[in-house]
Amino acid sequence: NAGVTQTPKFQVLKTGQSMTLQCAQDMNHNSMYWYRQDPGMGLRLIYYSASEGTTDKGEVPNGYNVSRLNKREFSLRLESAAPSQTSVYFCASSEEQGDRELFFGEGSRLTVL
Amino acid sequence: LAKTTQPISMDSYEGQEVNITCSHNNIATNDYITWYQQFPSQGPRFIIQGYKTKVTNEVASLFIPADRKSSTLSLPRVSLSDTAVYYCLVGDLWSGGSYIPTFGRGTSLIVHP
How far is A40 from chain B, CA to nearest CA, in Å? Predict the structure, then answer.
């Protein structure tokens, strides 16, 4: 039982390049989330998906797009990466929208040069 | 955004009890208080949740006074492995109608030998 799996774990991009962070959960959870974590800032919500087929913006959605491909998978896309998007990205899931217990992946460290 | 305030850092020694207090003056009537733990290079991990009075599990205790404007996470007899960042969370109602836990900056706990 892997829980929440994120790929890649590390990535270096040049400004303007695009990439997609992949996230998959095997717990049959309905809700999924993408957060970013910057030094001294805690975690900030980028986008979330309350259930399959729905996505909504969080606190810092600019520069990102998401796709809830199916119940298991929730991807985060950077269309034109900027140095300000250098961060550690965490995907999480919960059984239902409104649950306070989120299960997190191990994170994806992204550097934009 | 619902806001929580907790100390930025704390130091303790092995075997001591550690109490981390969080204030959440604007907590919603029906919201829970949730605490997470995060080790370096890992995603946050749920440790305890409560609504009022006291909750205890195998990891920690959570004390919530009657007015629910603050809460205290208590870690009994800490060890070096308890060195981590601890987050106090209350929920926020996002534009999509979902109620999602919001992370603050957390408290960095360092346990010394």
Answer: 6
pLDDT in tens, B52-111: 989 999 999 999 999 999 999 999 999 999 999 999 998 776 656 667 778 888 999 999
Q: Helix %, strand %, coil % for chain A, to 5? A: 5, 50, 50
Following CA atoms A45, A49, A55, A56 in sequence, which dihedral angle do they give, to the nearest 10 degrees? -40
Q: Which two tokens stand for residue A4?
A: 């929440």
3-state secondary structure of B99: strand
- The residues of chain A scoring below 50 in pLDDT are none
What's the CA gap between A29 and A60, in Å, rounded?
23
Instruction: With beta carbons less than 8 A apart as the criterion, state whether A91 and A21 touch.
Output: yes
Which residues make Cβ contacts (< 8 Å) with residue A31, sequence separation at least 6?
A: A48, A49, A50, A51, A93, A94, A95, A96, A97, A99, B98
Contact residues, chain A, for B44 at CB < 8 Å: 43, 90, 102, 104
Burial of A21 (C-beta count, 10 Å sphere; 0-12/13-18/19+): buried
Asked if A102's CB is within 8 angstroms of B44's CB, the reply is yes
Distance CA B102, CA A43 (A): 8
- Is B42 near chain A, with CB under 8 Å? yes
Interchain proximity B45–A104, CB inside 8 Å: yes
Distance (Å, whole) CA B62 – CA B54: 6
B48, B64, B103: which to substitute to probe chain A, counting the most A Cβ within 10 Å? B103
Residue of A nearest to B108 (CA): A40
